[in-house]
């Protein structure tokens, strides 16, 4: 398996523009997570899907952020409009686990976002 | 909710020496403690984990210890090598912590000096 695949690897955009980050989880995994990594705050969970259904989005910073998982093999994280403080590395991770018994998280290589 | 503290934030050791990274957690219900290694430009990768029914686990040069009473767990790397240089994250999983109960520490940047 190729692992979790994220695109783009790098994105530079201007404030106010829409940003869409994409993720393909490992085939067969039933959970998908979006994390944001910054020096100040470390790894923060933004949203978690189980069987394609958003379960917990309490980590999404504000309404400018949205995430979808239309099928088991694809998810998007969208920021509209983007702001400089959104600059970070965004990771997608997938796992096969059940409630109360977490499975190993497999991370993608991340999407580095810079908002000017 | 769970709170995970990780120390130190940066650790520099001579090649061949041992390195120890320590974490504490707040929720006694947490029962699973993984450690992730993140190399430059890559995503975190699981290197070792321990469950609350075990006090110690070893895999070649790395070991993890857990003290449930004190709510401490530690990562030990012996005979450090240049390829051990990376950022290491501890995490604690609380099965009652909602849909996803995994909380990460802030990370330790381990530097192996030649």
Condensed summary:
The complex is a heterodimer of chains A (116) and B (114). Chain A has 116 residues and is mainly beta.
Describe this structure in words.
The complex is a heterodimer of chains A (116) and B (114). In chain A, strand 5 (42-50) and strand 6 form a beta hairpin. In chain A, strands 2, 4, 5, 6, 9, 10 and 11 form a 7-stranded mixed sheet that branches. In chain A, strands 1-3-8-7 form a 4-stranded antiparallel sheet, with no helix packed on it. Chain A has 116 residues and is an all-beta fold. In chain A, 38% of the residues are buried. Chain A starts with a strand and ends with a strand. Chain A has strands at 5-7, 10-13, 19-24, 31-38, 42-50, 53-56, 65-71, 74-79, 88-95, 106-107, 111-115. By secondary structure, chain B is mostly beta strands. In chain B, the strands form 2 sheets. In chain B, strands 2, 4, 5, 9, 10 and 11 form a 6-stranded mixed sheet that branches. Classes of the chains: A mainly beta (116), B mainly beta (114). At the A-B interface, strand 5 of A face strand 4 and strand 5 of B.
Write a concise keyword list for the protein shown above.
heterodimer; A: 116 residues; mainly beta; 7-stranded mixed β-sheet; 4-stranded antiparallel β-sheet; B: 114 residues; 6-stranded mixed β-sheet; 11 strands; 0% helix; globular
What is the tally of helical segments of chain B? 0
**Low-confidence segments of chain A:** none
The radius of gyration over CA of chain A amounts to 13 Å
What's the helical proportion of residues of chain B? under 10%
Give the SSE order of chain A as H and E letters: EEEEEEEEEEE
Estimate the global geometry of chain A from the Cα principal axes: globular
Largest interface: which pair? A-B, 22 and 23 residues
Mean pLDDT, all residues of chain B: 93
The oligomerization state is heterodimer
Number of helices of chain A: 0
What letter string, H or E per element, gives the SSE order of chain B?
Answer: EEEEEEEEEEE
How can the largest sheet of chain B be summarized? Answer: 6 strands, mixed
Shape summary of chain B:
globular
């Amino acid at each position: 398996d190729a692992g979790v695949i994220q695109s783009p690897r790098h994105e530079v955009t201007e404030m106010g523009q829409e940003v869409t980050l994409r993720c393909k989880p490992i085939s067969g995994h039933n959970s998908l997570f979006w994390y944001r990594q910054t020096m100040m705050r470390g790894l923060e969970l933004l949203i978690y899907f189980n069987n394609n259904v958003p379960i917990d989005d309490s980590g999404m910073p504000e309404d400018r952020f949205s995430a979808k998982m239309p099928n088991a093999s694809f998810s998007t994280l969208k920021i509209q409009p983007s702001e400089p403080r959104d600059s970070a590395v965004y990771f997608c991770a997938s796992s096969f686990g059940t409630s109360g018994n977490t499975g190993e998280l497999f991370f993608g290589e991340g999407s580095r976002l810079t908002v000017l | 909710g769970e709170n995970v503290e990780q120390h130190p934030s940066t650790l520099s050791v001579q090649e061949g020496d041992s390195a120890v990274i320590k974490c504490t957690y707040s929720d006694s219900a947490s029962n699973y403690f993984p450690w992730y290694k993140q190399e430059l430009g890559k995503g975190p990768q699981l290197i070792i984990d321990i469950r609350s029914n075990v006090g110690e686990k070893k895999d070649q040069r790395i070991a993890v210890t857990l003290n449930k009473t004190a709510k401490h767990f530690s990562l030990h790397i012996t005979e450090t090598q240049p390829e051990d240089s990376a950022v290491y994250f501890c995490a604690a999983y609380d099965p009652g912590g909602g849909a996803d109960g995994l909380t990460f520490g802030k990370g330790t940047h381990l530097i192996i000096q030649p």
